[in-house]
Structures are given as C-alpha cells and as structure tokens.
Write a structure and sequence with these properties.
Blueprint: H1 6-9, H2 13-25, E1 32-33, H3 34-41, H4 46-58, E2 62-65, E3 72-75, H5 77-90, E4 96-103, E5 107-113, E6 119-125, H6 132-137, H7 139-145, H8 150-170, E7 178-182, E8 185-189, E9 193-195, H9 205-221, E10 224-225, E11 234-237, E12 247-249, E13 256-257, H10 263-282, H11 292-295, H12 302-308, H13 313-329
Antiparallel strand pairs: 1-3, 2-3, 4-5, 5-6, 6-8, 7-8, 9-11, 10-13, 11-12
The protein binds adenosine-5'-diphosphate (ADP) and magnesium ion.
Length: 398
C-alpha cells in the first residue's frame, strides 16, 4: 500500500475541522451530506468549507459519493488513518512514521518513533480489505444493526487487540507492551526479534516447545485462547532472556474466551499448529502436549476483566460474527515486505476529540471496497533537521 504524506502534513486547521466533521457525520450516515459536514464543522462562510472539502478529496482523505441521492462524502481509509495518527501525535505517543514492516491480510504494520526516538510499532487494522466477503455474508445481520462498516469493524479489532494485550501484559505474559490506541490503530512496543517461521533450526527445540505449550495452557488458565497461535504470530527474541523467555506472542484480535462453545477445538488447533511446525521445520516430535479438558485449570478470568474494561459482550458478538470466516481459515496471514521510505513528522497540538461511544454506529458501505490507506511518499517530508519547521505558522502538521 502506497503512502502519501504530503496530504497529512499540509492540512490547515479548517481542513482538519472538516475532516473531523466528516468522521462524526459518518457515525450515522453512510454518505455524509455536504450540508451536515458544513453544519458540524461550524465554519463561517460556505466557500471556505467548499475549499476544505475539495482539498480533502484531492488528498483522498474523503471521497465524493456520486450515486447518492444527495451530495455527500465518506471518510476513506486514508482519512481515518490521518485522524488516528493525529491523535497519537497530539498525545505524544507517535512523532514519526518509518518503514512498513508487515502487510497482513487485515493489517498494515509500521515502525514509528516517539519524541525520544524510541521505536515502537503501529498496527493499522484493515478489516474491510480482504475479509470484506465475510462482512458481506453477514450483511443482513449487519444491516439490521447498522454497524458494519470497515471503519467500525477495524476499530473494534483495534480496541479488542489493545484490551487483550493490556490485560496479558499486566499479568506478566510475554506480549508487546500496549502503548496507545485510537480508532483502528494501536501503538505497541517493538519486539527485537523475528517471526518463528524464519527459524530453520534450534539448538534445543524441546525447551522452546515446552514453553510455547506452557504459554497456551497458562493463557487458557487465565480464560483465553489465542486462536491464531502459529509461527507467524510468535516472535523469537534476538537476545533471549532465559530458556523460558525466548519468545513474545503477538496478534490478538481473534482471541476467544475459554467459555466459547468451540473453545476446546480452538485450543487443540493452537496446540496442533505448534506441533506441526516443530515436526516439519525443526524435526522435533513429542507425545507430550496439552489437552484442554485434562490440563486447563482456571485460575483467572481475563476474558471477563477485558469485557469489564470496555470490550462489551455486544461488541464481542458483533466482532465475532464479522470475523468468523477468517478465524475458520485460521492460517498465518502475513507477508513481510520492506517498503517505502522513512518518514519524519513534525507535530503541533490541536484539540481533538477522540471520544467514541460504545454505541457509535457506522453504516455498511455497500459494495465499495476501500483502497486508500495512509499514504507515505518517498522524500515528501521535512526531517528532524529543521527543514520543515517553517510550516508551523499556518499549517497543521501531524
Ligand atoms: P496480522 O494481524 O496482519 O497478522 P500481526 O500483528 O501478526 O498482524 O503483525 C504482522 C507482522 O508484523 C508480524 O508477523 C511481525 O513480523 C510484525 N510485527 C507485528 N507486531 C510487532 C511488534 N510489536 N514488534 C515487532 N514486529 C511486529
Ligand atoms: Mg499475524
């Protein structure tokens, strides 16, 4: 996915206001009527707003919907990316965006840095991209609920992943440190390591195997099953802390509670994934592997705690329906591509309202598939060396 930052950097505060108004309007309008955008933005003078709208459309942050009964716009992925990254920037969790390190079927992963130049990972959820079919399959259900757009589902995925990661991190599980989230994006610590699928030999596979199996059991004892526990989602640390601390587990949006009707099946599938990988790639076979009914003794209820922390039962249900197809496919999904150039950002404060209520509703997007993500183009951005400083005066920089 290409990235175009020129747009990100040179938005005026009025442009930003209009973009935010479009986002707010899309909570209950599939296509936000221009008049509503003008009203929410609260800017005086129609011509001014018109200019903002055409600037935003030119930059692909919003898109005109031609077939609508009325004149209107919808937010694009690029616009949604912009708003999330802007929120991180305002909260000082992201200062610059660097290389893309992963392209999954439902996410884009970038290395980012904060003001102290500490590197982190930005994960942008893109649920409408490939699993759009599953969204369509659920369309009747979703139409009734009026809440199934890519925006809504991607936001649920981010929120779910962040809540689970936080609960696990706080309970001492080897997962990245969750740092921030906004909309469909999360920021987490960068794991210095590589996905286990790159492992072709290991000096003592039995130790790694046992600690992976212990992880699965301990996770279940805390109330959760990963459901995509495979060599793509296990990062092997470059410098293991000890025999028992060789890896970090990532990628949690499809996690389920041990109370799920298919819990046992998902648990055994996670176990089998590891057994298969060890046999095929490392030539290691063991008869010793955990069984859900025999080995899992409930000691904590992170599944319940996470619900209490904001990822409600209703959200779990909606999300599960939407992603059930991709969970059934169950295989690792990530390609690894190094793309595009390093991008540095300057930032400036701007009040931004990131309060999105639980009952926020976005409508289904019909047959349209979003293509425009956050765009970063090579060499378009001023660096930390001050080349871009002058733009502070009348422009918003993220
Ligand atoms: P997806 O849901 O698309 O599979 P993942 O969360 O699994 O996304 O991330 C995709 C890839 O990005 C991983 O396989 C890994 O290479 C890289 N990655 C993701 N998170 C991190 C992280 N915190 N630190 C280092 N690399 C990461
Ligand atoms: Mg993954």
């Amino acid at each position: 996915m290409k990235l175009n930052t020129a747009a990100m950097r040179y938005l005026s505060s009025d442009d930003f206001r209009v973009l935010t108004a479009t986002e707010m309007g899309s909570k209950n309008h599939e296509v936000v009527p221009t008049a509503l955008i003008v009203q929410i933005a609260g800017l005086r003078g129609g011509a001014g707003v018109g200019n903002c709208i055409s600037e935003l459309a030119k930059a692909n942050l919003i898109a005109r919907v031609k077939n609508a009964k009325y004149d209107g716009y919808r937010l694009t992925y690029g616009g949604y990316d912009y708003l999330a990254i802007k929120a991180f920037s305002n909260r000082r969790t992201v200062y610059s965006v660097g290389n893309q390190i992963g392209v999954g079927k439902e996410s884009d992963i970038f290395v980012v840095a904060n003001e102290k130049s500490q590197k982190c990972v930005l994960k942008i959820h893109r649920l409408g991209r490939i699993s759009f079919r599953s969204v369509k399959n659920n369309r009747d259900y979703l139409r009734n609920r009026q809440s199934a757009s890519w925006m809504y589902l991607s936001r649920l995925a981010a929120q779910k992943e962040f809540s689970f990661m936080k609960a696990l991190y706080e309970n001492g599980f080897p997962v990245p440190e969750p740092i921030d989230y906004s909309r469909h994006c999360i920021v987490m610590s960068l794991i210095p390591g590589f996905p286990m699928r790159q492992l072709s030999s290991h000096e003592d596979p039995s130790v790694l195997y046992s600690s992976l199996m212990s992880f699965i059991v301990r996770l279940a004892e805390h109330g959760l099953i990963h459901c995509d526990f495979n060599e793509f989602n296990i990062m092997i640390l470059d410098e293991p802390k000890s025999d028992d601390e060789q890896f970090v587990v990532i990628d949690f949006p499809q996690c389920v509670s041990v109370d799920h009707v298919d819990a046992e099946r998902y648990f055994q599938r996670d176990v089998d994934c590891i057994r298969r990988f060890f046999e095929k790639k490392l030539g290691y076979v063991s008869d010793d592997y955990p069984l859900f009914k025999r080995d899992v003794k409930r000691v904590a209820r992170l599944d319940i705690d996470v619900q209490a922390s904001g990822f409600s039962k209703k959200m779990v249900k909606e999300f599960e329906r939407a992603i059930s197809e991709s969970r059934e496919n169950g295989e690792g999904s990530t390609n690894h591509e190094d793309v595009d150039e390093l991008r540095d950002d300057d930032d400036e404060d701007d009040d931004e309202d990131d309060n999105e209520g639980d009952d926020e509703q976005d409508r289904g997007e019909g047959d349209e598939e979003e293509e425009n993500g956050l765009l970063i183009e090579e060499g378009t951005l001023p660096g930390h060396d001050g080349r871009g400083q002058g733009q502070h005066s009348d422009r918003e920089l993220i």
